[in-house]
Amino acid sequence: MTTSAVLLRWSRILEISVAGLALAFAWLALPLLILFTVLGVASRWFGVGETTALYELGGDLFFVLVMLSFGYAYLQDGHVRVDIFRGRLAPRVVASIELVGCLVIVTPLSWFLVDYAVDAAWTAFVQGERAGAFGDLPLQWLVKASVALGFLGVLLAAACVTVRNILFLLGTCGAPSPSNDDALYGSGVGDPAGIDAP
Amino acid sequence: MTGLVYDNVGLLMFVVLGLLIFSGLPVAFVLMGVGLAFGLVGYGLGLVRLADFGAIYFRVYGTLADSEDIAWSAVPLLILMGAMLQQSGIARELLFCLQALLRRVPGGLAVAVSLIGVILAPMAGMVGAGVGTLALIALPTMLEQGYKPSFAAGVVAAAGTLGVALPPGIMLFFLADAMGMQVPFIFLAMIGPGLLLFALYVGYYALVSRLDPGAAPTTPSARRPTAPARPIHFVRGLLLPVGLIALILGGIIAGWTTLSESAAIGAAGAVVLAALCGTLSLRRVHAVVVQTTVMTAMVFLIFVAASVFSLVFRLLGGVDRVAGFLTGLSFGSWGTLALVLGVIFVLGCFIDWLEIVLISFVIFRPVLDGLDFSSHIDRPYLAFGWITILVALALQISFLTPPFGFALFFLRGAAPPGVRMADIYRGIIPFIVIQLIAIGCVAAIPQLATWLPDQLLDLRAAVRGIKAHE
Q: For position B128, what pLDDT does the model report?
């Protein structure tokens, strides 16, 4: 196997891990978030029991969902750009800008946040910080750790984008990255109007 | 030299942001990167302490974790609801029903398209999604029925952008937060101006179909029914989606449900609706989950990033300088408001509302806070609600304005090949005039916006929130 094939394979594995984690959690969190909130409304209306814990758990699910999805959204090219000039640039220029951006902005930034977030999560773990949501169990560190995991995801996504753009500039990879054509489990996203609906 | 840098480093930060943002890199990364880099510069200059870097991390954690004032978890639920309604094919069914109902109304199909914009586009949230959806489902039908391309394109662009500014769209959510207003207040305050705009649109359609019958044909011979409209279609294609939106807004207005509860009910309702339409397949649900996840990430990464940027900008003294400069211009309250609306309008020609609201309000919020409209509106809370609505309307016009109108490019992207950019530009001009009339009306008669929330909400104790993290 050539070096570029090995690199592409590894970046694919990383991409699938980042995407898989985000989507698996989204499949868990979104239905639960709806369920908890609707249950909360119902139990308040019918005067059954205390609902604060349900709402707090919902808030935590939302928080972790958002954190874990940052890297995945980058791989899907979901983060909004001001592209009035970008659209007119040659693919090689686009790839170069993205490459520089990954190395100079995204990598140090996510490194910085992972570093601080790991500290914060570790402190929460050692001090046994309590989360109201989990029946007052000392699990707040899990929520804080999701910040570290989330920006680790961004870091890995940036690494994949870097590799792909270098390979593109060298001529061994088809298109600049990230691109939303390269759908990671994303089939059907490009069908916003439900045109194929029966 | 050092003194000059020391004084103006905050301004330099905004200039660097302005340049880098056009590199086409994701806006959120640029915001955070510039924030962090200038944090280091500030550290070198002695303006930022080492402990403040911990505050940068805390912005990321804290802006979303402790949201007592605004339940951000409502946002993914609203996005999910919109994605579900789009994927389930409700939009198309809605078009069939409205088309059948409005076939005798002058410019009926145009009215139908605008109604769909009002009902569905708020869910789409972003201008691109709102206009794109309408262009895909409605534009081909309009052209098929002999509508003039320029007129049809104008209708679609206007309808898509109108919806984005209406409740329960997420734009109003973030705008309310940026201005420190209650979200229900802003939702209700937008209903009056929204109805006004809609009425002006319908009046314009009637006028066009009378003066230029070729542009908007109403003759039944020109249209063939695209689908048989049976009562079942009306129930699930029209009554249920409209009822769902009404339930969400009604629950908030009546005080039965909080915002996030309403959003959860809406999301659950959209799933049920898709099941009733027989379009609830695993593949579609997965697409909805993907769409919701990506859009939620996009919205909140910018939100967090803008918060990091504004922290450093504030530490470097940028906010005080710019706010001092703008108030020092002594334009008076009306002049300053017009200036702010003008800048927002220009920005809206290039970028979507999310960046404008989150970035420019770092500067505009203190400037707007200093304005005094007590001779125009008796209570300050109502005055700021009114300003918020004017900002929303200014944003909405800016999306439509050639040559850079943001919505126009999305329309071009999604339109059939027969529609040229020149058609779009020509078609949109009457709508810009209509929008300017509407914004003028709301500016002159604040009650258009403030009357409804004042009637329905208990505002005696209402105070504007100071952004918790400022």
A: 63
What confidence score (pLDDT) does residue A132 get? Answer: 59
ipTM over 0.85: yes
In terms of Cα–Cα distance, which of B160, B259, B257 is closest to B201?
Answer: B160
- List beta partners, residue B320: none
Q: Kindly report whether the peptide bond that precedes residue A178 is cis, defined as omega within 30 degrees of 0.
A: yes
Residue A135 CB neighbour total at 10 angstroms:
10
Q: Which residues of B touch A194 (CB under 8 A)?
A: 86-92, 279
By C-alpha distance, which of B375, B386, B376, B390 is closest to B450?
B386
Task: Report how far residue B117's alpha carbon sits from residue B112's, in angstroms, rounded to the nearest whole number.
Answer: 9
Closest C-alpha among B83, B315, B264 to residue A193: B83
Residue B429: CB atoms within 10 A of its CB come to 14
CA-to-CA separations, B28 to A73, B3, B39, B232, in angstroms, rounded: 12, 31, 16, 45
Any A CB within 8 A of B286 CB:
yes
d(CA B351, CA B126): 11
Distance CA B72, CA B312 (A): 24
Residues of A in contact with B65 (CB under 8 A): 59, 63, 143
Position B198, amino acid: F
Nearest by CB to residue B297, choosing from A63, A69, A193, is: A69
Chain A positions touching B129 (Cβ under 8 A) are 192
User: B25, A192: Cβ pair inside 8 Å?
Assistant: no
Other beta carbons within 10 Å of B327: 14
Cα distances from A34 to residues A21, B207, B256, B348, in angstroms, run: 20, 45, 17, 33
Q: Which residue has the tokens 């804290």?
A: B62
Distance (Å, whole) CA B235 – CA B243: 10
Give how far Cα A82 sits from Cα of B160, B303, B307, B348, B414, Å.
20, 16, 19, 11, 19
B324 Cβ contact list (under 8 Å, min separation 6): none
Contact B57 A187 (CB under 8 A): no
- Backbone dihedral angles phi then psi of residue A81, each to the nearest 5 degrees: -125, 155
Q: What is the pTM of this model?
A: 0.83
Q: Take residue B325 and report the two structure tokens written for it.
A: 């400069």
pLDDT tens for each residue of B192-207: 999 999 999 999 998 9
Does residue B84 sit at the A interface (CB-CB below 8 Å)?
Answer: no
Question: In sequence order, what are the residues at sequence separation of 6 or more whose Cβ sits closer than 8 angstroms to the Cβ of residue A105?
Answer: B25, B29, B30, B32, B33
Strand partners, B26: A81
Q: Determine the pLDDT at residue A5.
A: 86
Low-confidence ranges of chain B (pLDDT < 70): 1-6, 65-70, 121-130, 218-230, 350, 403-406, 414, 461, 465-470
Alpha-carbon distance of B154 to B75, in angstroms, equals 29
Cα distances from A19 to residues A13, A75, B283, B296, B453, in angstroms, run 10, 8, 17, 14, 43
One-letter amino acid of B235: V
Contacts of A73 in chain B (CB under 8 A): 293-294, 297-298, 301
Q: How far apart are CA B139 and CA B112, in angstroms?
A: 12
Element containing residue A127 per DSSP (H, E): none
Tens of pLDDT along B290-311?
988 988 898 889 888 888 888 8
* pLDDT one-digit tens code per residue, B228-283: 556 777 777 778 888 888 888 788 777 788 878 888 998 999 899 888 888 888 88
Interface probe with A: pick from B16, B17, B22, B29, most Cβ of A within 10 Å? B29
